[in-house]
Design goal:
Mean pLDDT: 91
Helix content: under 10%
Strand content: over 45%
Shape: elongated
Low-confidence stretches: none
Largest sheet: 6 strands, mixed
Distance between the termini: 52 Å
Number of strands: 18
Structural class: mainly beta
Order of helices and strands: HEEEEEEEEEEEEEEEEEE
Oligomer: single chain
């Protein structure tokens, strides 16, 4: 087809022309401040021996460039470490360029105060008890514990995860509240959405 095009001017069918493109991950994203971000680039329509990533930090007008490492899977990789400010980036390989993407940085809310209120089973004869010093829970089975967390900013989609099972927390301002009932030893965590992840 290429020879016919050169000698006789015959056009090359569009379906025979490989579309050269570069797709990148994570694309546009929002991450936690000081989080590492691996960038992966996949080339399509051509074979690439190398690739470079171009990064522009914050309000800078100039891009910094760095070579990407080829992986056994045929992708190219580069990791940005401990990001503290937003950035723009794109990838170039053999004249092909990916779309430009943005990564935004979000601050994760901090836990400023925590309150555990124990409601013991009636057979214990114990009155409800509040603990604001300890975060570990110690009580007999059947105890219901109110978990209240005050954070530096309102939590997005707050949940209480107990031994892998999650339930939503009620949110009022910077306070998030939920309840768990002790049935066996285990662990609990407070989850919330920050950027694109829990």
């Amino acid at each position: 087809l290429g020879t016919r095009h050169l000698w006789s001017g015959a056009s090359i069918p569009k379906e025979q022309i490989a579309a050269r493109s570069i797709s990148v991950k994570p694309g546009d994203a929002t991450i936690r401040r000081n989080q590492d971000v691996p960038i992966r680039a996949t080339v399509k329509g051509f074979t690439a021996q190398s690739a470079e990533v171009f990064v522009r930090f914050g309000d800078s007008r100039t891009y910094e460039r760095a070579p990407m490492k080829a992986s056994p899977s045929g992708e190219f990789e580069f990791t940005l470490y401990a990001l503290r400010e937003p950035l723009s980036y794109y990838v170039v390989s053999q004249g092909a360029k990916s779309a430009e993407h943005r990564i935004f940085v979000a601050d994760a809310p901090r836990i400023e105060r925590m309150r555990l209120t124990y409601n013991y089973p009636s057979w214990t004869g114990l009155a409800p008890e509040t603990d604001e010093d300890n975060r570990d829970i110690h009580a007999v089975a059947g105890t219901k514990v109110s978990v209240e967390v005050q954070t530096s900013a309102p939590l997005e989609d707050p949940t209480l995860n107990v031994n892998g099972a999650s339930s939503g927390l009620d949110r009022e301002g910077n306070w998030s509240r939920g309840m768990l009932e002790l049935t066996k030893a285990g662990t609990y965590r407070i989850h919330a959405r920050v950027g694109d992840e829990l």
